[in-house]
Sequence to fold (398 residues):
Amino acid sequence: MDGTVWRLPGPDRLVAQVTGEVQRGRHVAVVLPAQRAAEPSFVEGLLSAIVHTLRACGEEPRRPRPFEPGLSPLRWLAQCLVFGDELPAVVGDLLDHEDASARTAVLDCTGLDAPPPAAMADLLTRLTLASRPRPAATRPRVVVVGTRDMLPLLGPETADVTFEAVWWWGRLTRWDVACRLAPVVAGEGILRDVRLETIVEVSRWDLDLAQYLVRAWDGDPQTLAATVKDAGPGELAPPMVLSHPAWTARPHGDVAHLWDGGHLELWQNEHCPSPHSLIPTLDQCVWAAQSRVLLPWIESKRQLLVQALVQRFGEPKVNAAAARAADDPTPIEVGQLFYVVRALPTTDAPAWREASRQLKAARNRLAHLQTLPLDDQARLVAACARLGQDVGHGGGSI
Fold:
């Protein structure tokens, strides 16, 4: 996952949340899972987005020079906020310094060269407590990007009137993943839509897997499991852990280690393990994606075929044929339609017969929780390709 992820709506809301807390005069820690904190492009994209958004809101964000061994976190922060060589030696003096007034320091506490997490946690604790009696409008603010082991020692909630932790937890939605993939998914028309929806349903919050499937998967459900396995190993989350109700603000303490390792996320307000753990039930994911896209499409084609029949034979004849096919003739559903087309004189319209057959077969498979292979999808689309052209042209021989 690279830095461009911060252009997506979900991640952008995280940046907006950070900006809102800074404008309220609060210090902020952006808490990343260890897996993401180890990706320089992801972290740099976040830092750049925060600085850009703060500037756009009239704030004065500053980023320090890289942390050097031997520096204390306080001195590193003071170098960022105060000009000159005479730097404050205690937190209170830094908060009161005129150079630091109303400015925001944006600190990268990830990577091998970052300050020790325990030292940053101690500094954030002192900053939070010392900020309480000082006016929010004039005191400096600190935004820290790192992992959960740098959080200040403020009790179980890790929150305070002068501090807020913002977690990378449940930040990606279906629409974020689809938005990221839409420009690069191969194919066209409804087959492309099915492919995109399947990748989103299988990959869920794992953008790395999603982007791999875009490149490597041929679109056939029968090869999907092997392609997911080729993407890399995954870890199964213990069922008893996933039975905990999901917290929407941050991961529960019992699952935080899985989240840190990239094996668990919040997806649609529920705990969601790594997509690799879904391989045994992958057919259910494929079926859900195909149903979400194809069932509405099948219904639209059913309506077009009924309209073509009514236009050519008249509504009374079509309804009479439907009544012979079922006790409840209206509306004419896909299964009835197959028999209606054959009950009417349509031997000169083989495309209508083939379309009704493919619509019935596809609908029946999906209704029985079965997936459609890629070849069957292609035949379905080809059989229905002319239905829209027939309506308005009197039907005729097709």
